[in-house]
Amino acid sequence: MTTDYIWIFTTGAMVDTPPTVSATSPVNGATGVLVNSVITATFSEAMNAGSITPAIPGK
Length: 59
What we know:
This protein is mostly beta strands. It has a domain at 21-49. It has no helices and 2 strands. The model has no long low-confidence stretch (mean pLDDT 89).
């Protein structure tokens, strides 16, 4: 290089955005869903199943 190259930057903690639900089955608001239906949720990133806490609305 014939001249100095000045490069300025800072470092810091990475911001980790929480995962989001990208798809569900049955879909939100579905009616007439059989009680023995398989229920699934797809997340925006890989999940550790042990870190998911099920919740029942209203309880």
